[in-house]
Hints:
The structure holds 2 protein chains of 2 kinds. Helices cover 76% and strands 0% of the residues of chain A. Chain A is mainly α. At the A-B interface, helix 2, helix 4, helix 5, helix 6 and helix 7 of A face helix 1, helix 4, helix 5, helix 6 and helix 8 of B.
Amino acid sequence: MMRASRAGRPLQSVFSRILTGRLSMRRQTAMLGLALVLPVVLYLLVTQAYPFISALLTSLTDKRIGAPGEFIGLGNYVDLVQDETFLHAVRNSILFTASSILLKLVFGVVMALVLNQELRFRSLWRALLFLPWTIPTIVTVLTFQWMYSATGGVINSVLLRTDLLHRPIDWLGVPLNAMAAVVIVNVWRGTPFFGISLLGALQGISREQYEAAETDGANVLQRFLYVTIPGIRDVALLVTLVSTIWTLNDFQIIWVLTRGGPADATQVFATLTYTSAFLNLDLARGIAISMASVPLLVLLIIGTARSVLRQEA
Amino acid sequence: MKIRRLTGCAVSYFLLFVMLFIALAPIYWMLVTSLKGESEIYKLVPTLWPKELTWEGYTNLVGNTGFMSWLKNSAIVALAVSAVSLFFSVLAAYGLARLRFRGRQAIGTLILVAYLLPPTLLFIPLYILITRLHLQSSMQGLIFAYPTITIPYATWVLTSYFTSISVDFEEAALIDGCSRLGALRRIVIPLSAPAIVSTFIFCFTLCWSEFLFALVILTGANSTVPVGLAGLILGDVARWNQIMAGAIITSIPVVILYTLASRYIVSGLTLGGVKG
């Protein structure tokens, strides 16, 4: 009782000073600022920070759905390192991410360069090329699944009819093809994000820079290397980092198209996490798999945050 | 010189048409398939243009599947989450952009990190939390989970937008005796209305397209559009005209909203980090 009232008094006086306007303007502003930010911060602590810590702890137990877990230390992680499927998933995640990002960057640069030309109806082309990024991912995935289909799939049919192909390709049933198939969908969907962002950067390069380079006798290639690339480098880096985070954690495209198959050929972190946790009901193992990507993710997030904050400044 | 320009031009148009073909062919195929009859879908050699245009895919989708209730669920969740997210994000963003207090920068960085954290990392512990709150299998569960995606995004984008607008009007209002919150309501929010509306739109589309949380949290027939549509494929049998009809209907609102807000969204996509 005593303690409560003693602690209560300064707080009370702060309130009364706010009410009577005697609290300094600066303190008042600071308190209001905190009050405005508080709901968001609390929500993120409950839904992000707490789950993260509890995930780390759960990954040290053998918890399954519907049953409490026992502490088993690093058992889950030791198991993972020796698990052929997990090692597959690590390799596949890297292969999927690296090839998707490389292709999106290259196609994105091409798209930005073309849209930066003085074309007729440029804003119409820009809007149309942006469509793959706009439509919901599930729509894209289902459409490609239908186009890849062995019966009635339009891709095989057109390739066969134009004699580019003599036998139909089994897009989703053969390991290497399946990987190519999911990369294609990711690249189709993600290229406009690169293209439009890089276009913004290109438009920031002044015409004088190109003219100066031209009077100095620089040819097309040299102008691209010494004017264009430095001009888009920061944006390209940022877009690449952000997209790497998203691609590394892609779930939907792979899950709907292949479920991680055939024979784990497209099994990545996210699909293996889901399979372990919700199909094999082994929550702790699922969490351990997703936690295994954290070190890489931390590096990427630090890199991105730095790049963003530098460009903000 | 002139010839070089002309070839450059020709190359540009050639690349443009190749890109347009790649971008639009799947969308064309989606549309065409949705207008075909079931017998035409199962032909071994597909027809590039339907022999007979029919709304069969659409009517069967609406009549024989749970599509309408998925649509309703998606709309309710997306609207509720976007509205709640925007309300709190506007307040937080104003605090971060205009009011000096200890820990402001640290909180700003935390929000950026929260935006970059992929949902796949924390969906299992979040699922456990939602189960403990007895919100699993319900729209409330999704409404609880989705702001983890929308709030960090909205707060981040709006903070950089508020920072970019001039403080002059606000200061004049404060000198005239307006309170801070009064200035936010009467000056800052009207000035940033386009940015707030487009952030709302982008939050809406994020929720509208979300797949993983909906797959994990909801069960059975109670579903949103993305998970419901994916569930229409059962083994090798899939009524692709219905599924593509669903794909078209799902895409239309998003495409319209994006087009309305695209001017502002493009800068938001790159975390507000790209100027120009």
